[in-house]
Amino acid sequence: MTRDEALALDAADPLARFRAAFDLPDGVIYLDGNSLGPPPVALHGRMEAVTREEWGQGLVRSWNSARWIEAPLRVGGKIARLIGAKPSEVTVADSTTVSLFKLAAGALGLRPGRTTILSEAGNFPTDLYALQGLAALLGPDRARLKAVEPEALPDAIDEDTAAVVLTQVHYKTSRRWDLAAVTAQAHAKGALMIWDLCHTAGALAADLNGADADLAVGCGYKYLNGGPGAPAFLFVAERHQGQIASPLTGWMGHAEPFAFEDGYRPADDIRAMITGTPPILGLAALEAGLDLQLQADPRAVEAKGLALCDLFIGEVEGRAADPELKLVGPRDRDQRGLHVSFAHPAGYALVQAMIARGIIGDFRAPDIARFGFSPLFLSHAQAWDAAHALADILAGREWDQPRFHARAAVT
Ligand SMILES: Cc1ncc(COP(=O)(O)O)c(C=O)c1O
Questions:
Q1: Helix axis angle, 280-293 to 71-83, nearest 10°
Q2: Residue 19 annotated to the active site
Q3: CB 3.0–4.6 Å: which of 41, 97, 207, 252 could bond 84 by disulfide?
Q4: Residue of 195, 219, 411 with the most ligand 1 atoms within 8 Å of its CB, for mutation
Q5: Record: fold of 46-293
Q6: How far is residue 323 from each of residues 4, 62, 317, 383, 395, measured CA to CA in Å?
Q7: Residue 221: active-site member
């Protein structure tokens, strides 16, 4: 593809108008929205209003007058539209890690007598760590984590499997599980399916109810552009509400929090999965991201993201002569998410050299240079420019400078 052809694609792009709605620095090509999305322009005014008016003037009254108390379900209801769920099936709560812990514990309770939680070896570490912590807490007679290679996964589901926990789009390889097919495989063995949608929500047009999924979690700070450490979301299918029990019972999950009863009595809906006081500032930022995202057609978002990835892969492989650079994960767009990973022995330095040119991606140990293609603010020409910069950096060994090898705490 020529750069002019990339520009022609941008001229015909129905999502191009969204670029101006993000507050991004000039001259930067931001290929890390899959780690931390950028702030929407509208965010700044919203935060000002929440802090100055709602918090500053309304003070504690704003729990009612500004409807703060409804925020977890209101914002959850907006996320529901992006993941194929009903508004009553999604709430915002805690972090992804904590939400996954709660749902996995709840899933064990829904499948008494079964002890295995099955996941994928190499799943995002926090998912495995949360499940390891749950297993350690409950002991081997009640819970154990089995993590198998992805190829072995469907056959590893058996009569002892309480729940299968998978990230739909793998954080390193970008490989995508088929939501409906894997959920059906879990159900065929009587197991529940828990999806981690961190790299799905706001990127791919997921359909949880179409896939008959049971439970799901996801974060707010990647493609939903909710800000650093934005609260996470969790999904509980309607049929499990009133049945699933949270292991972290707190007053906000109580049927009547302001009755101040001594005994815990769970709400009979999604609120039962909420634990404590909702983080209103984080929710306000997340809602600003969502209000922007919801103006775009999810299918157009997915299609453009996949096209940007195809363009990037094609241009890098067409130009980069370095035999040590290898695409990680599937090439087929039906089997991938919206980030592209290349393995290279100097992966870290390569990413730093790209950043020095204003093209921001990230590095995942041991050797992966990872580039995310958020469809709302990136253009085809930027994907083209990034690919050609990567090829140039490789050709000139531009990465091979001491300053690009010094490892920072966050990679
Ligand atoms: C698949 C996946 N799950 C979970 C997380 C992070 O969990 P938390 O939001 O609790 O930090 C990430 C972060 O990148 C992730 O990629």
A1: 30
A2: no
A3: 207
A4: 219
A5: Aspartate Aminotransferase; domain 2 (3.40.640)
A6: 28, 60, 10, 22, 11
A7: yes
Q: Closest Cα to atom 16, ligand 1: which residue?
A: 171
Written as six digits, the tokens of 257 are: 């929090």
Give 320's pLDDT tier (boundaries 50, 70, 90): confident
Q: Which of 22, 30, 101, 124 is catalytic?
A: 124
Contacts for 7 with CB less than 8 Å, ≥ 6 apart: 380, 381
User: Structure pTM?
Assistant: 0.97
Least confident among 22-36, 254-268, 315-329, 379-393: 315-329
Residue range 3-30+297-404 in CATH 3.90.1300.10 = no
Measured in Å, residue 164 CA sits from the centre of ligand 1 at: 17
Residue from 171, 197, 339 whose mutation best tests the ligand 1 pocket (most atoms within 8 A of CB): 171
Identity of the amino acid at 30: Y
**Tell me, what amino acid is at 160?**
D
Q: Active-site residue 222, yes or no?
A: yes
Q: Is 124 a catalytic residue?
A: yes
β-bridge partners, 215: 194, 236
SS3 category, 222: coil
Q: What is d(CA 379, CA 364) in angstroms, rounded to the nearest whole number?
A: 24
Cα–Cα dist 131/72, whole Å:
25
Torsion-angle region of residue 149: left (phi > 0), alpha (psi -120 to 50) or beta? beta
Indicate if 196 belongs to the active site. yes
- Ligand 1 binding residues, C-beta < 6 A: 95-97, 124, 126-127, 167, 171, 196, 198-199, 219, 232
Q: Cβ contacts of residue 14 below 8 Å, gap of 6+?
A: 297, 300
Q: How far apart are the C-alpha atoms of 198 and 339, rounded to whole Å?
A: 12
Domains 3-30+297-404 and 46-293 share a fold: no
What residues contact residue 26 under an 8 Å CB cut-off, 6+ apart? none
Task: Select from 292, 314, 327, 325 the least CA-distant residue to 386.
Answer: 314
pLDDT tens profile 54-82: 999 999 999 999 999 999 999 999 999 99
- Spans of all domains in the chain: 3-30+297-404, 46-293
**Peptide bond connecting 366 to the previous residue in cis, omega within 30 degrees of 0:** yes
Could you tell me the distance, in angstroms and rounded to a whole number, from the CA of residue 94 to the centre of ligand 1?
Answer: 12
What amino acid occupies position 339? H
Any idea which residue has 């739909």 for tokens? 168
